[in-house]
């Protein structure tokens, strides 16, 4: 709890808001956590869950389907491999993770000022990922496209509260499924200069994503530094399918970051009790991180979690509910004991529109992510409809909350200025603080200021058109796209990327599913 | 973190939902906290703030305006009284608070099954308080009235997630200001059987509120037990006006509970830095609690806080922002060191309607209240527009979030059932958990289920009319009022209350301001 942390959050916030108004967006390369994490369990509880994780790994194990090289890595490491089932002797997975996984690393952006640190006290916000649909309040819900994809890359670039460009910010379903990764990676590079994620849906797509990064950063640099991430979803419960394990190994082989994320809807892909889902999530994620360490020791990795509950009457997934929020807190504690960076998500909701349901659920989910100590928060902005839609207005509302979380993470300074005794001496009982020296002195940095909340009087609000926050957010994203200016890109690099894309696209027929 | 806690939350929740569907609402008399509090500072930080509190009390002190008996109590207790300014020797206020304030007490309801415990591990949710306006999405914003007041008493009675009937759930501005307290107290008694709050706006109104409680509970019982609360707002900074200190002493004298709450909008009634506002809030509240202990040692009291930030460009108050959320966490820590019950609020927002802004701000504010360890959470449901309006739909949305917080506070059980190893043994890799024995066994208690969130598919939601959550909440409060049935009230008590009201109303002319 230092005043430095606070000054950083407050001042950065103001500067970012000012800079964000015109020209290139301000640089806020992550935020340093100056508040403690929210810890749910003591030593005894954590040890109990760790024992359950060990039992799952040892007794039940996991399946690696259709990927013999992964099975070989496990056999060589000392695991018990029977067909595609792998069982892990007690402590094996933990030892592999602890032995070589970096505690923190730099994820490089092509603009070095926007590189982010993953791990330690740093927190990185990244947009939502993977929606086939997009939504805005004017045109409603429709399929994603490359144009929408580029719009969200531009919005994340223009928002000072997104530290990262994300990955599949929406699915460009107008492009062939076996080629769209090229346009997605190109869009991140061309329309932003923040760090980004590549494709994971097949090994060759992962490798081509990394190859494009090499054209930007240089082959040697990429071999020694993280410049791209792959988000690896476990096929929960307890299965890695070939696409995922091969893509994970492709990123690790290239010394690039894998984000290993079990996807557990309680009652469907995991048990209905949260403690069991936590143990499962940790076991699955640890195995993925360990696999990457076997593939290339020391390659950067992030241990992820994605817990959700289910409305048991209908079987529908639910988000932003209390159980996953508590679960995240515990996963944060367990992951800190491993010392690897943690991914947590995000601004979750099942609502179809950015209404009160959406923002309440998102606030619960995002606060848990921040309080649990996550280093990389995917799905920080835009998520709607259980992940099926990327929302324009939702993106703006979530990004504004990310701005608030910068101030939250900066904590409360306890220096003399913070305690303000001189202000009380100046003002005394029954007077107001508006004009006092302390207020004037702190005016620039005091109090987080929302860019989208309406704090005006009822009459002012009514006279300005009685707009709800969705309408105000709609005006904001339209203005941001209007004001967008692309960051410069070396023409030689641009040409090399375009040539690579063209050649790769010609090398195979279009596939649409 | 016991499984008992969990079972209580989960099972209670289901039972309450079932019972709430027909007839008398289920009894959920508070919830026991089974999770730890979120602590921001260590010993060093807390001591630093406590030193600042001492300095404020000693050096600057407070004014008690127009209430010589309060000044006499302070002089007799050893304070330094100069005119209306009271300065407190180091440790005096803390010693008085520690000496006799109960650590917890029962707040009795006329239906004993609905009595609540304030203090310890108990958490009590109470509706919003004090709005001159009401709002619903059909008719918009208009002045409060006795009819609206009664509607909100009925809604709080019908909601299993409100443990308490509240106080001025809206201002019945259609009644004379010097008589409306009689109708408010009568409405709480007649249309609910939950515990409630009385008037504080003048000493005689406080005394008449308590007198009505005596007609219900009996004079002797009231002298020995808490049956009514008074919410005492400090005239921050550092002033108690006569109405407040006299009302506070009236409640204490009758052995009834005072909730002492500084109202600090940073930059206006306090400094713009959060540490200073925390010190001020604690100093002001401790003095109020101590005054009540001087008036009657051992009378029940709750130490309150109400921190807010300000949009410094406009001077408008802001709510649900990060600074007050952090401030609440620290006030929780400091209050636990005093060992007295804590009030925190609530579902705050500046939004004029229950849109995304409203619910996000409310979620931030309510989560802070729950995480900081508050025992009594006023403004748990209904608050809009910085407290100027009580919202019907907002009440429903907030009450639903209170339901979620029951599950949150119940924590994660780590027993064998929770860890679910047998479920993994039954299901194994790659299968789903829907039909497994563990799921069936836990079906009744697993996962919090919102009564208002829409988790359906886009198509189902669209075909049901594409309703946003405000519209669904609108349908719900209308249905609840339709289904409302008044709890029985002894006709003799009813008659005595009506006679007291009539006599008191006749005794003085109407006053309208």
Structural class of chain A: alpha/beta
The CATH class of one domain in chain A is identified as: Alpha Beta
- Sheet bearing the most strands of chain A, described? 8 strands, mixed
Oligomer: homodimer
Shape of chain A: globular
The termini of chain A sit apart by 51 Å
Structural commentary:
The structure is a homodimer of 513-residue chains. By secondary structure, the first copy, chain A, is α/β, with parallel strands linked by helices. Chain A has a domain at 5-25 and 99-410: Alpha-Beta Barrel (TIM Barrel), CATH 3.20.20.480. In chain A, 47% of the residues lie in helices and 14% in strands. Chain A has 19 helices and 21 strands. Chain A has helices at residues 3-20, 43-60, 68-77, 92-100, 146-158, 180-191, 203-217, 219-224, 242-253, 274-295, 322-338, 356-371, 392-410, 416-419, 421-427, 437-442, 458-463, 469-483, 491-506, and strands at residues 31-32, 62-64, 80-82, 85-87, 104-107, 116-119, 122-125, 133-136, 140-143, 196-197, 228-234, 239-240, 257-262, 264-265, 301-304, 307-311, 316-318, 342-345, 376-378, 383-384, 389-391. In chain A, the strands form five sheets. An eight-stranded mixed sheet of chain A has the order 1-7-19-18-15-13-11-10. In chain A, strands 3-4-2-12 form a four-stranded mixed sheet. In chain A, strand 20 and strand 21 form a beta hairpin. In chain A, helix 2 packs across helix 10 (274-295), helix 5 (146-158) packs parallel to helix 6 and helix 10 packs parallel to helix 11. Chain A is globular, with a radius of gyration of 23 Å. The termini of chain A are far apart. Chains A and B meet through helix 2, helix 10, strand 16, strand 17 and helix 11 of A and helix 2, helix 10, strand 15, strand 16 and helix 11 of B.
């Amino acid at each position: 709890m230092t005043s430095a942390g606070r000054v950083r959050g407050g001042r950065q916030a103001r500067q970012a808001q000012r800079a964000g108004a015109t020209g290139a967006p301000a640089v806020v390369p992550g935020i340093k956590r100056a508040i403690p994490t929210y810890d749910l369990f003591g030593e005894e509880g954590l040890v109990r869950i760790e024992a359950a994780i060990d039992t799952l790994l040892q007794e039940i194990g996991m399946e690696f389907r259709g990927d013999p090289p992964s099975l070989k890595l496990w056999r060589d490491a000392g695991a018990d491999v029977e067909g595609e089932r792998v069982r892990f002797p007690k402590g094996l997975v933990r030892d592999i993770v602890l032995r070589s996984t970096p505690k923190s690393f730099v994820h490089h952006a092509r603009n070095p000022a926007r590189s982010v640190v993953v791990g330690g006290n740093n927190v990185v916000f990244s947009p939502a990922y993977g929606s086939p649909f997009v939504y805005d309040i004017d045109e409603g819900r429709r399929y994603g496209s490359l144009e929408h994809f580029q719009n969200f890359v531009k919005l994340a670039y223009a928002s000072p509260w997104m530290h990262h460009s994300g990955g599949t910010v929406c699915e460009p379903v107008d492009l062939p499924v076996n080629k769209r990764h090229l346009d997605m990676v190109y869009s991140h590079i061309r329309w932003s200069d923040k760090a980004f994620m590549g494709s994971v849906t097949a090994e060759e797509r992962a490798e081509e994503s990394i190859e494009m990064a090499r054209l930007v950063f240089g082959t040697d640099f990429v071999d020694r530094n993280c410049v791209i991430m792959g988000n690896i979803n476990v096929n929960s419960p307890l299965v890695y399918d070939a696409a995922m394990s091969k893509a994970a190994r492709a990123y690790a082989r290239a010394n690039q970051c894998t984000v290993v994320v079990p996807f557990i809807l309680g009652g469907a892909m995991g048990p209905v009790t949260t403690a069991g889902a936590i143990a499962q999530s940790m076991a699955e994620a640890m195995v993925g991180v360990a696999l990457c360490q076997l593939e290339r020791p020391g390659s950067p990795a992030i241990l992820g979690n994605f817990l959700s509950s289910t409305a048991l009457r209908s079987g529908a997934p639910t988000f932003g509910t209390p159980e996953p929020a508590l679960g995240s807190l515990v996963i944060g504690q367990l992951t800190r004991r491993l010392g690897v960076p943690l991914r947590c998500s995000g601004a979750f909701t099942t609502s179809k529109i950015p209404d009160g349901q959406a923002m309440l659920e998102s606030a619960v989910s995002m606060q848990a992510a921040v309080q649990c100590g996550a280093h990389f928060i995917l799905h920080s902005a835009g998520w709607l409809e259980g992940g099926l839609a990327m929302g324009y207005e939702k993106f703006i509302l979530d990004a504004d909350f990310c701005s608030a979380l910068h101030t939250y993470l900066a904590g409360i300074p306890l220096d003399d200025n913070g305690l303000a005794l001189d202000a009380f001496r100046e003002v005394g009982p029954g007077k107001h603080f508006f004009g006092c020296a302390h207020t004037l002195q702190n005016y620039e940095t005091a109090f987080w200021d929302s860019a989208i909340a309406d704090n005006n009087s009822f009459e002012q609000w009514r006279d300005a058109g009685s707009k709800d926050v969705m309408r105000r957010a709609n005006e904001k994203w339209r203005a941001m796209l209007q004001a967008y200016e692309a960051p410069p890109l070396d023409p030689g690099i641009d040409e090399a990327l375009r040539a690579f894309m063209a050649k790769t696209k010609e090398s195979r027929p279009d596939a649409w599913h």
